[in-house]
Design goal:
The protein is mainly alpha-helical. The protein has three helices and no strands.
């Protein structure tokens, strides 16, 4: 199993996710703003992590032509 990738992020982020869920559920009045901020942060992380991916494949097609 030398080449296997371990899913570290899932197990390490579990306590943080539980804490966030507990805070948002315990503060009913602030659950909507907390949810919106968390959704924005998650989207920003996904955009940052995938910023160099070529989703359409145009770069590889134009490089070979």
């Amino acid at each position: 199993m030398r080449g296997a990738i371990r899913p570290r992020g899932t197990s390490q982020s579990a306590p943080a996710r539980c804490t966030i869920a507990r805070l948002s559920l315990s503060r009913e009045a602030y659950s909507l703003p907390i949810g919106a901020i968390l959704l924005f942060a998650a989207l920003a992380c996904i955009m940052y992590l995938t910023r160099n991916l070529d989703w359409s494949g145009l770069r590889s097609a134009t490089a070979t032509d």
